[in-house]
């Protein structure tokens, strides 16, 4: 079974100073990087995972926490991959734990990985309790948790709870934070591929920020252009 020391032993020799600076710049210098690109870490992760991942929830939490305790962003990324691979071990009682991950080293790349892939899967299995937790996040003072609440249904398609989506967007649509406005547009755009009528009606009935509306209509506008050609 792999440990954080195994991960570090595999990653440290791959450190690339040239890529490090460009990756840190892309992430607005919020985190230090080793400078290992995804195309390099992907095969390394596959080899590491052959050693075996923890089989218990507590074991997974320990390894993921070890990854998040490291400074460099690449360790956070592999921690999220491990969590995603083992998300079936988790349920709604673990949403407080996942909230801790979302609010540690917070940035769009971690929130956008954890919310739709891990939180979304957990909530879908236990919607009554899970959706109440999402309401808490949506009303939070932490805009990363608000973004996570908006994006947890991103991949739901015909399983979308439109009432909940409407509630969450109306609660946040006047927020000035770029990441909230972008998330509103993104989740509506994705859902427009499943229910275009709902998205069109929602936008016509509710005043969204120009950014949210533009993002929400991107797919519909593109398909309309294709149809007209």
From TrEMBL:
Q: Which Pfam families match?
A: DNA_alkylation
SUPFAM superfamilies per record: ARM repeat (SSF48371)
What CDD domains does the entry give?
AlkD_like_1
Source species, domain of life: Bacteria
Query: Gene3D superfamilies per the record?
Result: ARM repeat domains, Hypothetical protein (EF3068)
**Under what name is this protein listed?**
DNA alkylation repair protein
